[in-house]
Amino acid sequence: MTKDQRLMNLTYTQLLKTNRNFRNLLWGQFVSEMGNWFNFIAGLGLVRLVSDASPMAAGILFVARLLPFAIFSPIAGTFVDRFSRRQVMIWTDIIRVFVALSFLLVTSAENLWIAYLATCLLSGVGAFFEGAKNAATPNMTGKEGLLAGTALMFSTRFLLMALGSALGSLAAAYFGYKVAFIINAISFAVSAFSVWLIPEEATRERFEDEKKRNGETERESFFDELKEGFRYTVQNRFALTILIMNIIWATGGGAIQVVFERMGGVYFAQKDLWKPDLAVGILWTVSGVGLFLGMMVAHRTEAILQRRNSYISFIGWTLVIHGVLFAVGGVMPNLWLLAFFTFVSRAIVGVEYAVQETLFQRSLPDYIRGRISTLDRGAEMTMFSLSSFFSSEAMYYISPQFLTVISGILSGSAGIVWFMRERNQEEKRSGSEEESVAV
């Protein structure tokens, strides 16, 4: 166990009470994420309406929501390591206000391209906001508050998946899609104001970067720093393990959007006469609640893992079990049973992700954190978007139930990859220690 892993972690209450800057960042995310889910549910419903429930149209929207984020993430990571993270967050929020309002122009299949373009822009610009936010969070929380900060940032995001999906589906079903798009635009404006309240120096280390402390006074070019991020990921075993594991998880995880859309919006809507938007909203809601609750117990879980030094077993087994449970949900006969297995599966992976992400962030030096975290996220989102697209195409040939089973198995296999790489590394370390003792 490293020295960082033995740190006394702040509780959620301690962090929120003593850290005003983090509270402002968390509030901004809370509001903007709420609006994002209004946009997602309304956008998906709008595409379903004007395209006559075409799987291809839904698949294009999923790709537009994910792929630009993946493409721009490595660039965004380098950008936020070089320039003001605070300014990046403010300006990306302002841009997204106007992009969100462009959805109001979509009225028929002929101008559906506007929805796709606006979704691409929200995704691409969002990569810069996420890169800046993720890179700045450890600076605001400090190492003692990083676990609580990570859990709160992600748990509130997933809570908003629940609340935003529920409220967004109700707003779309009873007030129309335009209301949801307007709420999304307002949410970005509120987020920009919240970030504006955070001082510049709180978003990065006191020195320009850690390299200056090592006597290096000149910065490399933008593209050299971009390449440095790739080199670090490939050469650092733990960073590469996280990257590979997240890509493997996304091969199945990307199908979840199609699963919820087809199972709730089409299959159970036809079979049990559910309102499509409401059924889809229920699945996203229970998924968000499960992830939120999982994140919230991560603080106590991490304390136990520290005492027992059982990170490897915990991360591996929780990934495997969550995938198996989601696969079981695919054969359930009604929406509520699918929702139950989805809830339990997401709760388990929520705990795992909070622990995994905290270990990952602690391992990254500040000067390169933006590049590595966004590269990891971008690679995951690339696979996520490809999985979403091919899953939507698969709906012409297989049932949504079968797709759910496949999704669970593939995402759970990330745990096997984790075991293979980390246990092999542990055996090498044990072997080296035995050799040292023998000498």
What layout of secondary structure does this protein have?
Layout: H1 12-18, H2 20-50, H3 55-82, H4 85-101, H5 112-174, H6 177-196, H7 210-213, H8 222-235, H9 237-253, H10 256-271, H11 276-296, H12 298-308, H13 311-329, H14 335-362, H15 366-394, H16 400-438
Helix pairs in contact: 2-5, 2-6, 3-5, 3-8, 3-10, 3-15, 4-5, 4-6, 5-6, 5-11, 5-14, 5-15, 8-9, 8-15, 9-15, 9-16, 10-11, 10-16, 11-14, 12-14, 13-14, 13-16
Q: Could you name the CATH homologous superfamily?
A: MFS general substrate transporter like domains
Rg result: 21 Å
Tell me the count of domains: 1
The coarse overall form would be globular
Structural class: mainly alpha
- Beta content comes to under 5%
- Overall residue-averaged pLDDT value: 81
- Determine and state the CATH class: Mainly Alpha
Q: What is the CATH architecture assignment?
A: Up-down Bundle
Number of extended strands: 0
CATH topology: Growth Hormone, Chain: A
Structure notes:
This protein has 439 residues and is mainly alpha-helical. It has one domain: Growth Hormone, Chain: A. 83% of the residues lie in helices and 0% in strands. It has 16 helices and no strands. The protein is globular. The two termini are 23 Å apart. Mean pLDDT is 81; it is low at 1-6 and 429-439.
Short synopsis of the structure:
Helices cover 83% and strands 0% of the residues.
Offer a few descriptive terms.
439 residues, mainly alpha, Growth Hormone, Chain: A, 16 helices, 83% helix, disordered N terminus
